[in-house]
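job 3f2a | input accepted
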Amino acid sequence: MPIQVTCPGCLSRFAVSDKYAGKKGPCPKCKKEITVPEKSSQVVIHAPDVAGPKDSKGVAVLKPIKRIEFKVGWKTWIAVGISALAVLGVAIAIRVGGDAPPNWLVWLGAIGLAPPIAMFGYTFLRNDELEGYSGREYLARIAICSLVFALTWLIYFGLAKYFGAKSLAEVSGLSMAILMFLMAAIGTGAAFAALELEIGQSMVHYLGYFTTTFLLAWIMGVELAQPLAKAQPKKPSTSAVVPRKIPTPTKKNQPVKPAPKADANKPAATSSPASQPVPKQPVPNKPAPTK
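job 3f2a | predicted structure (291 res):
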């Protein structure tokens, strides 16, 4: 077995036969005299012992599992891009139509988008050092995770109704933030339990689904809360002074006098004061003179 030698003068490395072990000789490059090390001073790296069954020659029968890195090809990116543009186009078409989307369409989108987003997120976020799920177990775990993702929106709608909101347009901004924090906690726990991701990866996994569905609902015109409503209800201002109407006094229970009937033989009276006869004033009687 050849011995690896390093010249201390020019630092060049070369191999010599093991029969020159412990002997001196010139360096083939700088001609400086060097000493070939002994065999005992060399470091030998041995291959690790393979556990498991072996054949008659001592070779392991089982082969170690090789790490397979996930690489996204251009076909995958094209398919994802086309799907995203199609969903975005449907949302914009509904918004341009002017009418609010029906409830069945909103729930269909929340349920239908959960499985592909869960599968795509797990493919990117899973640990490559560990073997991923496959087969029926993989499909079952993705189905459970997707179902919980879709149920988080049902929890949002249900709690909003439970706390007195007749419609989602009446949910305040603070209530929306609290409910969405609860949704994120439930979705993160589902990804952590079903797919065995880390806490940070589980949160990113659910936030990918939540962000996608939230933006699509906003584009379609779904009023998820009061800050996102089209026409927000205006509260009456307490500082404005409203003028109070004072009712005019009316006389109740007062008999109404009938209007006098006009005589057909008499001429109609005019409203002009000149045409009306002036009444004669009585002349006072003068006392008789006394003698």
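job 3f2a | The two ends are 191 Å apart (CA to CA).
job 3f2a | closed
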